[in-house]
Each structure stands twice: as C-alpha cells, then as structure tokens.
Amino acid sequence: MVASASIKMDELLTNWLGSDAVYESVVRVIENLKAESSNNTNANNNNVPFSTVGDALTTVDGRPPLSPKLVMKQQQQQIKKRPEIPPFFRQRAQHGDNPQNPPPAPPKRRTNSSFADDQTWDGIYMANREGGGVSGGSGGDDISKITAHEYDTIATDGAASAATPGQPAQQPQQQQPCIAIRARELFQELGVFPSALDSVEGLPPNLSAILHQYERNESTYHKERDDMRLVPMERFERITKELCNFPTFFHKPLYDRILLLWERHITSQKLKLPPLPMVTFGIFHYFWDTEMAPYDKDERFFRLIKQPTQEYITRDDFFPYIKELLSDHPGLEFLSDHAEFQDKYAVTVITRIFYSVNLCHSGRITVRQVRKSDLLSVFQQVDEEEDINKVTKYFSYEHFYVLYCRFWELDDDRDYKITRENLLKYGEHSLSHMIVDRIFDAAPRPFESVDENGNVVRPSRDYLTYEDFIFFMLSEEDKANEYSARYWFSCVDVDGDDKLNNMEMRSFYAVQLHRMQCMGHEVVPFEDMLCQMMDMIKPANSDYLVVEDFLQDHCSQVAGALFDALFNLNKYVMFEQRDPFLERQKREDEFDTDWDRFACIDYNRLAMEEEQREEEAMEVDWVTMDEEEEDADEYNALGLSGSSEAPF
To answer: Could you give the dihedral angle defined by the CA atoms of residues 228, 234, 236 and 238, in that order, rounded to the nearest 10 degrees?
Structure first.
C-alpha cells in the first residue's frame, strides 16, 4: 500500500512539473535569482576580486578564474533567452514589429495527388516559359504553334540534373505534353469544324444557328477558331479514357455532364448564349478547369457520379453508368434481349457497391468513403476485362445469378417480397426463428426513400426486398469481413448498447440447444461454447464483446464461428466437425473470400439443376411426340383422316 501511494505521488509530481504554467514560473524564479546574483557580484566586485558566481567562477581545482566581463556577458545572454514556441506554431507579432513586414504565413498542407504528371490545363512548366502561358479561362492559347522545346525533359521531384559527387548523372524523365496539347490533338483527330457538319449524321437542325451566335459573341473559352471544333458523343470514348482516365463506358454520361455544367455556367454568368448540344474544345477546356484540374482521381470519380447539387452519391446516380456497361461490355451482350434481367443485374451491382462502400448504411456514399474503397479501380478493371465473371467485386454475372435465384426460390408468391416464413426456409431451415425476427427488426437496410416533403421514409420492416435480401445473403455466406461483422452484431445486440453480453448470447444459444436436442446432435453446453469462442476471439474485455473485437487481424477467419453458434445450427455443426485437411485446402484455393467460394459452388449447382430440367423437358417432349404419332396412326387406320400428308 505504501509503495503504491509513493508511486502515485511521483506521478502527480511529474504531471505538476510537466505543466506549462509551472515551467514558466520556475523559469522566472531562476531568472530573478540570476539577476540578483549578478547585482550582488557588481556590488562586491571591489572587495572580492575573483568571487564565485554560481559555477562560472571557481578556483577550487587550481585553474584561473574566468574574466568577470565574460561572465557578465554570459549571464545577460541567459537572462534575455526565452523558451521558444515550436516551429509549427505561428508566432504572434511582438510590440514594435513592422506592420509592413508581417511574419510569413504557415505553409499550406499539400494534398496527396494520385497523378504523376501535371494536371493543369496549360501545364506549370509551359506557364513559366518566356513570361508564362495563357491564363486559365482565356481559351486563346495558340497551342498548335508550340514546338517540342516547350515541354522538354525535366527532372522529377525537384531533383537537380547535375550529378552528385561519386554518383553518375541521372537522366531526366520525359515530361508528357500538357493537357491542352493532348486535348487539342484529340479534338483535331476526332472533331469537326462547324463548316463540316454536313458530314455528321443525326445533328439537330438548329445547330448551325447556335454555333453562329458563339462565333459572333467571342465568349470566354471560344475566342479562337479551334475552340469551335466539335466532337460528337459517339467519338468521345478516347477522350474519356486517355485524357479523363475514366472507364470507356463512361463516355455518354460524361458527355451529358459536360453539357449540363456548361449550360449552368452560361446561365450563372448571364451570357447571352444558347446551350450547345455538342461538346466543343472550349467547353471541354471549361470542364477541365472546373471539374478535373483541382481534384485527384477519386474526387473526380465522385464528382462525376453524384449530382452537381449534392455532396453524396445515391443509388440512382449509378444507373446511367451500369446501363452503359450493359450495352457496351461483351460479357453482358447475351442480356440485350432480356430487359427485366438487365434491370435486376444493375440493382444487384449497385446494392453490392453500397454494401461494401457505405459502411454506415445511410444510402449515401461520401467522398471519404470513395477514397477508402476500391471502387474506381474495380470500375477500371471491368472496363478492361472481357470476362465479366473474373471481376468478382460487384460485377460478376455468376454472383448475380446466385443471388437472384436464391431470392426467386424463397419468393413463393412472386411479389418480390420475402416474409419471415420465407426466410426461415433459407439454407434448409438452418436459421433460428429468433435471428430471423431480429433480421426483420434490426438488420441494416441498404436504402431509404424520401417523400414529397423531403422527409426520410424508413423502409418497411414487414418484409425484405431484393436489395435487403442481398445484404442478408452477402453477410450470411461470408462472415469473415467487416461488413458482415457489423451486420450480425447489430442483429444480436438486442438492447442496442453496442455491447454483446452473456445474457444476450445465452438467449440466442438456448434456441440452438433445443434444436440440437430435437435433431439428435451432440449437445454443447453454453459455457463450453463461450469459453472456446473467447479463446479464439480474445476480446479486450472478458465481460462483453464489442464489434471491434471481431475486426482484429487474428479474428478474420474465426469471428463468424460465434455468430454461427448463436443462430445457424448447420454451419455450427460443420464447424465442430471440421476436417483440418479440408480447412487447409480452403486456405490455399484460388478464392479470395468465402463469398467467392460459395458463389462458385452454388452457381455450378444451379447450372446442373438447369441442365437436368432441360433434359427432362426434352424427354417429355419426345414422349409426347411418340404418343401423338401413335394416336395419329390409329386415327388414319380407321379412315377418319381427310389427308395422308404430315401436319407440318
């Protein structure tokens, strides 16, 4: 007890001495003592020729004392010295400072750009040559006259081109031309002048009159002849991919967004110009200055998908892009004649995106969530991959097929709604009725609707829609991820205190014990199960579990075992009887997640069942044809047929 009190006193003393107020008080006391000591030294200088002042003057070890003038100078310097403010704070202006020469402002924080090349329109290197380039927004830069030396080789990262001692000189990397040059080259290759519009089909009849107004007005971004060069929508794919770094199938929504922003620009600036139905070089210049140059890849993607007046992405914002994917991707061409399944595929992809990206399940994706996700890279992957099933994140058609068929099997009345009785049949009645009730009452739902007055309308808890079922099935078949852990934790946390205690777990497990006894399985007591799970999960507090306990690195493959023990009897029995050899094979197979493995196995099962149904249907057709032929022979033998020719 005495030792602990002593330790506590030492901690209090350390905290007291470490405070800023105590530190400043001690410094002032020391300075005052030094000043008094210096005054005493000057007063007694005639009586004591070499008196000691602190440790500065001493003759104990036989060395000659320091000069009194030098000692006085050192003491004065110590008195003037003050504790400095750390350099990352801006010092306030002192009395007598020149107001015309204020202290420098603190440096601005640099954002992490995901681009290796300069993304400004004219380029920072070209803008600094011979008095600088054309200012943004002028649109009058004659880039066609720029020669190769305007964007010559430049050392990257500010490194000097000269060689350091002992090292060979580094060759500078070739800097790409600025965006203006690359855009002008593409517009010259793909675009047409207004005078050559007769060669382009499908143009509006009043386009010539609209362009004539732009030529007479000489508005911003349309001062030069090349600024009037137009590119039709069907030729915009290369600009979308090569300049904007968006997937190719984004070209139509991107084209429409550029025209929409330009129309809002001329309205806000009160320019007496009609909106254009085609993108000109000047309009693309405006779009790049406002929507591309200031942002990195993730924020460009975010700003393109969302509506211009919103600060988040909703479900409907993705539909135009998935629609273009369905019409352009070779792996989805077979769906062109099935409009209903095209819509269901789009809904499935969008719901899976919200399941993985929108972790708070608000139905609104923010720019921060886009940065933390792999959404943009997956869109790029599906644009480059011809086999849609190889893109297992969000876009796989096989995964859509599994999800939709499972939903269709449970939906008996075909009203696209799953009731409690329907969900109890899932997985051969593997779920307990208690967790099914909690799924309907407390499980996260993907989307919310808004009424005419702008009020948020919570989805009905009486049934599961197709989107709700996707959330459930993804969480049920893959419990080794953060999204699933949060989904099931919200269901099992009955009192909503974000803590899973023994009473809550015992109430769920009591249903499992009853089912074990009825089905003849070996009964595992609750205490034994809980002890085993706690040893695997290793929670921070042994009295309760929080969702962060399931997100630990060592829990990625075992966290779902506790949820299975509480409400999925079939999977819990499989966990208790698992084969170590099969578990090792599972860890070494080609699948990245448990969902990918389950979807592959279930798709093969569904495909085999479909083949069996087709074979049975063919056998029935053949039997029917044989019976019809026998009846026809008997009919003809009786002489009742009017003709002996075949009916076909």
So the answer is: -130
